[in-house]
Amino acid sequence: MGGGVFAGIQLVLKSPYLLGICLLIMLLSTLATFLYFQQAQIIRDSFADPSERTTVFAAMDFAVNALTIVLQVFLTGRIVSRLGVGWTLAFVLIGLGVGFLVLGFSPVLSVLIAVQVLRRAGNYAIMRPAREMLYVVVGKEEKYKAKNFIDTVVYRGGDAVSAWAYSGLQALGFTLAGIAFAAVPLAGIWAWTSLKLGRKHEELAKDKAVVEAAG
Hints:
mainly alpha; Growth Hormone, Chain: A; globular
């Protein structure tokens, strides 16, 4: 295809659709990082013995993997077919927003484990496939250049920025509950972005189908 190192950045900056995907990835990284740091603090405060912490993490990983397999085999395809890409993405995010809200009212171990397991399983089984579908309707340049930029620079940059943001909120005196409440509107923005991307995805899919039929 040709092009230089910065071709992916140029493609993203020229496309509102790809910029929307960037925003989606940034919000994904931010909320995942917030929940990760909350998990670390709650589990650290709940278990003094490192072996007990390891046991909890192992049990959570097992639950995530088992739930992911069940969702992918029995539900993912049906959810996407019935709701479409946009609502499929928003469905997971609305659930995450509710999870943060509950965590804000009750920042305890049992709630944290439930929210984290459901978030990770929902991400792997439902949201990740739906996110990949967003690229089906774009051209080859966007799939192999812009997507690479988004999946590396934007995603990892989001990790770093969200970690700084979490530390900043703590420095301002935000508690675990306060940070959880602050994450709720971010989940709302994330869901709204997903719906907008879903509608644009449908428009681009129709345009692509017309072009292919004419060709």
